[in-house]
Amino acid sequence: MSTLLTDIEGTTSSIAFVRDVLFPYARARLPAFVQAHRHDPAVRRWLDAVAVEIAAGACDDDVIVETLQGWIDQDRKHTALKALQGMIWEAGYRDGDFLAPLYPDVLPALRAWHTAGHRLAVYSSGSVPAQKLLFSHTEAGDLTPLFSGFFDTEIGGKREPDSYRRIAEQLGSAPFDLLFLSDVVAELDAARDAGLRTVLIDRRDDYPQPRLGEATHGHVRVESFAEIDPDLGR
Ligand SMILES: CSCCC(=O)C(=O)COP(=O)(O)O
Ligand SMILES: [Mg+2]
């Protein structure tokens, strides 16, 4: 049996949802969120991490908010930003402002793999709480019971092989037992360097120019989860 480790943005859910729905929602609410929660230790921890990075800890919260909004505009995959975004999105899911879309081929494949006895896990730049919110508020309902593990960049960056070694260890698996699914070739390169099997997901709505030939770096390329054999490469 394999463990399928999947990315989210550009793999299970569209880049447009993240860019056009989630990011603007968090950007607009960030100033009020920081104002309301600046003394909450779970929030302060991340604000201070940003302050240390941009000004050796010496800046006020308005500067931190402007920095974070700039990072949203640049699509920075920064752990502090992702943690704070997840906290802000919680209200959006709770109030029914949005549901998380999945590409239509994703749910049938996840269910089939789970039923067949394969394990499912998530590794995304989005924080673990944000991942759980997303998969518990999909257009098809709560899918979190399908997953055995959730990992974010607190375990390490997605382009670093050691992150994948740590995930395999935490799942109690040999790296080769994991099949990593992602839309980003550099992430797949890191996973392969750590000994994982890999599949490049090319979502044509998000990637109108298919990655072919040398652009795939030798990773198996598919356009749908329906094409994926969980035991690929064994
Ligand atoms: C938990 S979903 C939020 C999406 C997000 O913020 C993000 O950065 C997704 O990146 P991924 O690693 O899933 O491509
Ligand atoms: Mg992605």
From TrEMBL:
This is Enolase-phosphatase E1. GO terms for biological process: L-methionine salvage from methylthioadenosine. Monomer. Pathway: Amino-acid biosynthesis; L-methionine biosynthesis via salvage pathway; L-methionine from S-methyl-5-thio-alpha-D-ribose 1-phosphate: step 4/6; Amino-acid biosynthesis; L-methionine biosynthesis via salvage pathway; L-methionine from S-methyl-5-thio-alpha-D-ribose 1-phosphate: step 3/6. The keyword Metal-binding applies. Its cofactor is Mg(2+). It catalyses: 5-methylsulfanyl-2,3-dioxopentyl phosphate + H2O = 1,2-dihydroxy-5-(methylsulfanyl)pent-1-en-3-one + phosphate. One of its GO terms (molecular function) is magnesium ion binding. Keywords: Amino-acid biosynthesis, Hydrolase, Magnesium, Metal-binding, Methionine biosynthesis. The keyword Nucleotide-binding does not apply. It comes from Thermomonas hydrothermalis. Bifunctional enzyme that catalyzes the enolization of 2,3-diketo-5-methylthiopentyl-1-phosphate (DK-MTP-1-P) into the intermediate 2-hydroxy-3-keto-5-methylthiopentenyl-1-phosphate (HK-MTPenyl-1-P), which is then dephosphorylated to form the acireductone 1,2-dihydroxy-3-keto-5-methylthiopentene (DHK-MTPene). Belongs to the HAD-like hydrolase superfamily. MasA/MtnC family. Its EC number is 3.1.3.77. The lineage of its organism: Bacteria, Pseudomonadati, Pseudomonadota, Gammaproteobacteria, Lysobacterales. Gene3D superfamilies: 1.10.720.60, HAD superfamily/HAD-like (3.40.50.1000). Pfam families: Hydrolase (PF00702). Binds 1 Mg(2+) ion per subunit.
